[in-house]
């Protein structure tokens, strides 16, 4: 007995009636144009809403400006050249990171606030209601206000060392281009004045030390001269050999040091 074929049992898979399926219609560009033509008002409305939302966001977003000032930091010439290259490298490893930390420190920020009188600038200190030059002087600003304004300055400040150089960028960000330029340049100027002040203080201490040393040395030389005069009154003084007398040798050395 023969087995029924697959087609005989299940019929034609293309169509129940045996007719071929109609070909699928391709979507033409004209169909897109037709959709846009029928719904152009909706598309225009959506475009206008998007543009309005973008403009509103632009208007309510606070404006931000940034000014960058590049400075060069060099070590004191009095210490450059001491030791070998390895010693200089080790000293630089500590010196320059220290300078960068000083640049972004609260102490320098507060000095800049005082130097620029930012406590009287309404753009920087909105709570100020007076006129520039009125009210408190920079020296009389209370510590709480100075600390608050110093922290605000620090918040907008960025210190960016240039790798492989002694250059560093001082960058400040604020809502006013004039304010950013004023503060960025002010930080650089205040830092330079601070370094000069520290250098003068160091030189002053060294000068005081040397003055005390010279004074002590002068007193010792005078004592030696008095002893020599006492030796001169002795009948045996003429037989003294300066090269064999330790007191005379030391006196010559002291005189040499004093002249130097």
The helix-and-strand class reads mainly alpha
Number of strands: 3
**Largest sheet at a glance?**
3 strands, antiparallel
Q: Estimate the mean pLDDT confidence.
A: 75
> What sequence of helices (H) and strands (E) makes up the elements?
HHHEHHHEEHH
Q: Report the uncertain regions.
A: 5-11
Taking all Cα atoms into account, the compactness measure Rg is 43 Å
What's the shape? elongated
Helix fraction by DSSP (H/I, runs of at least 4): 55-70%
Give the strand order, joined by hyphens, for the main sheet.
1-3-2
What is the helix tally? 8
Distance between the terminal alpha carbons, to the nearest Å?
134 Å
Proportion of beta-strand residues:
5-15%
Describe the structure.
With 260 residues, the chain is mostly helical. 58% of the residues lie in helices and 8% in strands. The protein contains eight helices and three strands; from the N terminus they run αααβαααββαα. The protein has helices at 6-10, 29-38, 40-60, 85-103, 106-116, 143-156, 177-232, 246-259, and strands spanning 65-72, 157-161, 167-174. Strands 1-3-2 form a three-stranded antiparallel sheet. α5 (106-116) packs across α6 and α5 crosses α7 (177-232). The radius of gyration is 43 Å and the shape is elongated. The model is unreliable at 5-11 (pLDDT under 50).
């Amino acid at each position: 007995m023969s087995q029924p074929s697959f087609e005989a049992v299940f019929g034609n898979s293309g169509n129940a009636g045996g007719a071929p399926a109609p070909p699928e219609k391709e979507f033409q560009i004209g169909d897109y144009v037709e959709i846009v033509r029928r719904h152009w008002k909706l598309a225009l409305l959506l475009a206008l809403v998007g543009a309005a939302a973008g403009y509103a966001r632009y208007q309510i977003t606070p404006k931000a400006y940034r000014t960058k000032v590049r400075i060069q930091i060099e070590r004191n010439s009095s210490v450059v050249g001491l030791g070998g290259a390895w010693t200089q490298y080790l000293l630089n490893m500590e010196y320059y990171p220290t300078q960068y930390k000083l640049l972004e420190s609260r102490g320098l920020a507060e000095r800049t606030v005082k130097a620029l009188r930012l406590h009287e600038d309404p753009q920087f200190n909105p709570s100020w209601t007076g006129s520039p030059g009125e009210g408190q002087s920079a020296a009389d600003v209370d510590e709480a206000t100075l600390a608050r304004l110093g922290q605000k300055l620090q918040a907008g400040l960025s210190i960016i060392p240039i790798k492989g150089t002694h250059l560093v960028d001082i960058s400040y960000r604020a809502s006013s281009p004039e304010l950013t330029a004023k503060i960025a340049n002010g930080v650089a100027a205040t830092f330079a004045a601070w370094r000069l002040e520290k250098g003068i203080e160091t030189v002053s201490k060294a000068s005081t030390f040397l003055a005390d040393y010279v004074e002590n040395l002068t007193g010792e030389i005078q004592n030696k001269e008095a002893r020599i005069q006492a030796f001169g009154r002795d009948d045996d003084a003429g037989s003294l050999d300066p090269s064999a007398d330790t007191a005379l040798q030391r006196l010559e050395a002291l005189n040499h040091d004093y002249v130097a």
